[in-house]
User: Fold this.
Amino acid sequence: MTKINGDANSPPKQVIHSQEAAKDPYVERILDAARQLFIENGLEAVSMHRIAKKAGIGQASLYRRFTDIGEICSVLLRDNSERFLNELEHEVQLTPVKLPAFERLQSSIERVVDFLEQHAELLNLIKTEFTGKKQLTQFEHPFFQRLNMILFQLLQQVTAETENILIDPQFVATALVSVLSPDLYLFQKKVHGRSKEQITKGIITLFVTGLRNP
Amino acid sequence: MTKINGDANSPPKQVIHSQEAAKDPYVERILDAARQLFIENGLEAVSMHRIAKKAGIGQASLYRRFTDIGEICSVLLRDNSERFLNELEHEVQLTPVKLPAFERLQSSIERVVDFLEQHAELLNLIKTEFTGKKQLTQFEHPFFQRLNMILFQLLQQVTAETENILIDPQFVATALVSVLSPDLYLFQKKVHGRSKEQITKGIITLFVTGLRNP
DNA sequence: TTAGTTTACGGACAATTGTCCGCTGTGTCA
DNA sequence: TGACACAGCGGACAATTGTCCGTAAACTAA
Assistant:
């Protein structure tokens, strides 16, 4: 029988650089089970109990690693969202003076809408679960916190570059996050039948063009 | 014993004009029980089971009238929200040309924020429950639908009065509803410590002043 | 090895949501 | 008054979430 780290000269338990949970085999089994159930049954039809069953572990072992389904979704989406936010951050910080801040803001909004288009449903489920348990708003989720921060920096740059501008970057950033929420995005598509492009245009008119002409 | 509609010459079952549930004594008992439990235990600590117990009725009898706690909250808030929306609608439609549309828009936003300040928590709970069950977004709740409609009309008037304006009233109305959502309001107060006045100012800067200067 | 300590597994359990179904009480007709 | 239909009540029940605790495996030390 092979024991984990049981070999002689067991290497020092080095901190894992990659995604932090790479060590725990249960985590992988859980994520695999969840992925599979999501595909087979749709996002809504999957329960924590079923995930535990499918992963072949007990309820408690599941809850010890993920407090709810939203957290599982978070992790399933994390690679994508991390990459996305990193790229966005990178663009904001490393395209410093090449483009006017307004144009960087516009391009960032377009990128966010692209991301929404791909992942709105999963993001929405994350939000539901996240806000459901504690007394939290969707804006307190790490994803939206970081998005808020990035947009805030952009808006600060906009105000720094623009004369006679009267906005509060912090407030506008939060409002922008709200308008970019998956909830609103899905509503626009579902009820008003708007396309990605229409939604992008509407947001840019409000938050870029609107600020631009003081 | 008095039978409901059991008298001779029973009058044709006329549609009830007042709040529709006025007939059913169970509804009153349920609402009383809910009100009391909400006060005693806080919004979050109350379950459907406890409401049924407190009202002295069975689970099914409760569910036959209210599909979830959100619906109970809706009804508890309905008098207030109906009155509020009626007033808002009235002002929008009957203050036609006395004030410029921009100023009516501003005043309406202020009124909505006042309402949020009073009822944000209840509204938020309604939203949670409403969106939780079916695949619905908060914007599909009747309250927000009607608010959306009112703001849409206002924004149409704004565009009619203003030259060179380039907004899509339907889109802006929905964005405005999003920024006026209880979720965002509570977040602003809780995390950023903003006052009602600061929030009002921020929204008006974005959605009134921003549009005003094309 | 053995004894003692610690970790953490997993099933049982409580609490909640929402549904089902047997039963009772009322109304209708003879 | 009695037979019958039937609307509606309420408790039991399934499904889900989240927690607790007895127990077994793993690690430490002699």
In short: Residues 52, 57-61, 64 of chain B lie near DNA strand D (CB under 10 Å from a C1').
